[in-house]
Design goal:
Blueprint (H helix, E strand, L loop, with lengths): L19 H19 L6 E5 L13 E5 H5 L9
Antiparallel strand pairs: 1-2
């Protein structure tokens, strides 16, 4: 049965190829794999980008290992002084 209302459609777990969200997801995955290849123990930690991907950052700008709470608590929407 076709969907009549867009709100009824299921949201895909992974974004479609060719979208900005997909490119960012792949960039995060490359950063995690690079850390694993170096042999870094990242158990319980997140790979954090020094410049956020949503703000135009990439792996070339640098990545660090950071606690989950610190990495996910940043508010990039807040105005910077």
């Amino acid at each position: 049965m076709p969907y009549k209302n867009k709100k009824d459609r299921k949201i895909p777990k992974n974004p479609p190829k060719g979208t900005k969200a997909h490119e960012d997801r792949m960039e995060r995955q490359r950063a995690r794999r690079a850390m694993d290849k170096k042999g870094v123990n990242r158990k319980g930690k997140d790979v954090s980008h020094k410049k956020a991907l949503k703000n135009g950052g990439s792996n070339k700008d640098g990545v660090t290992l950071e606690s989950r709470s610190a990495n996910r608590s940043r508010n990039y929407k807040r105005k910077k002084k």
